[in-house]
From TrEMBL:
Entry coiled-coil feature ranges: none
Gene3D superfamilies named in the record: Homeodomain-like
Protein name per Swiss-Prot or TrEMBL: Myb domain protein 4
Principal subcellular localization: nucleus
Organism expressing this protein natively: Hibiscus trionum
The UniProt record lists the keyword Transport: no
CDD domains listed in its UniProt record: SANT
GO molecular function term, any single one: DNA binding
Location relative to the cell: Nucleus
Cellular component terms (Gene Ontology): nucleus
Endpoints of the signal sequence: none
Lineage, uppermost ranks: Eukaryota, Viridiplantae, Streptophyta, Embryophyta, Tracheophyta
Keywords: DNA-binding, Nucleus, Repeat
Length: 247
DNA sequence: AAAAAAGTCAACCGCGAAAGT
DNA sequence: TACTTTCGCGGTTGACTTTTT
């Protein structure tokens, strides 16, 4: 079987977009809106695959993009959100108007990681590096472990003992590769989060705008991300970690 | 001034989930 | 229910720029 390609690769351009291609894409989306990305290139007269068009539009051409340097407030928000959500860049981007997941991901990898390391904080675990290297080991999740090993052994050398001795994780709080739900059987609808005196469903608590999965009707229209809700309970401490079950 | 190294970021790739049939 | 198609996401690459030697 296998997955069919999203477009005919033989007849598509790759690499950097030209001004003309940008103009065509902008003009088409202005006229017809964002729609079927698969058919868009042909309809717009572009020799690009739909995926490429989507990416170009979302990450670069969208009129509501901010661009420019990140502010200190944005930095701190990204760090906070990353500590809660991990590498869920699209969710993080959803909380930063005008920023894209790709932009935030790049910014994290180039700036914030270093910034946290300079502060002595492990960017993977958001804990002090000294603590992380002493007694915290992520069990059986290679990505997180490799990250830790990189931090504690910057030259890449890994001690055999460290590598082979499983150590119980002391504070397994925010490794979002895990189901961070306690043994918990939900027989009825989970109690929604409350923020600012209003009730939020899980979808809205993550800042997902206009989701069809929204059960509280807050996410649509004027009430969502721009209204100053305390998403994730960052400010109010209302975060219910059971609601952050990721996988 | 030139070469090498490091940093940046747009774009690509492959996968999983959702939607459609 | 099974299969196919499309979309969206996160990881990675590589071209380009900037800084250092």
């Amino acid at each position: 079987m296998g997955r069919s390609p999203c477009c005919e690769k033989a007849h598509t351009n790759k690499g950097a977009w030209t001004k003309e291609e940008d103009d065509r894409l902008i003009a088409y989306i202005r006229a017809h809106g964002e729609g079927c990305w698969r058919s868009l290139p042909k309809a717009a007269g572009l020799l690009r695959c739909g995926k490429s068009c989507r990416l170009r539009w979302i990450n670069y051409l969208r009129p509501d993009l901010k661009r420019g340097n990140f502010t200190e407030e944005e930095d701190e928000l990204i760090i906070k959100l990353h500590s809660l959500l991990g590498n869920k860049w699209s969710l993080i981007a959803g909380r930063l108007p005008g920023r894209t997941d790709n932009e935030i991901k790049n910014y994290w990898n180039t700036h914030i990681r270093r910034k946290l390391l300079n502060r002595g904080i492990d960017p993977a675990t958001h804990r002090p590096i000294s603590e992380a290297s002493q007694d915290v080991t992520t069990i059986s999740f290679s990505g997180a472990k490799e990250e830790k090993e990189k931090i504690s052994n910057p030259n890449g050398f890994i001690h055999k003992e460290e590598k082979e001795t499983p150590v119980q994780e002391r504070c397994p709080d925010l490794n979002l590769d895990l189901r961070i739900s306690p043994p918990y059987h939900q027989t009825t609808q989970p109690e929604p989060l409350k923020a600012g005196g209003r009730t939020l469903c899980f979808i809205c608590s993550l800042g997902v705008k206009n989701s069809k999965d929204c059960t509280c009707s807050v996410g649509s229209g004027a009430g969502s991300s721009s209204s100053g809700y305390d998403f994730l309970g960052l400010n109010s401490g209302l975060l219910d970690y059971r609601s952050l079950e990721m996988k």
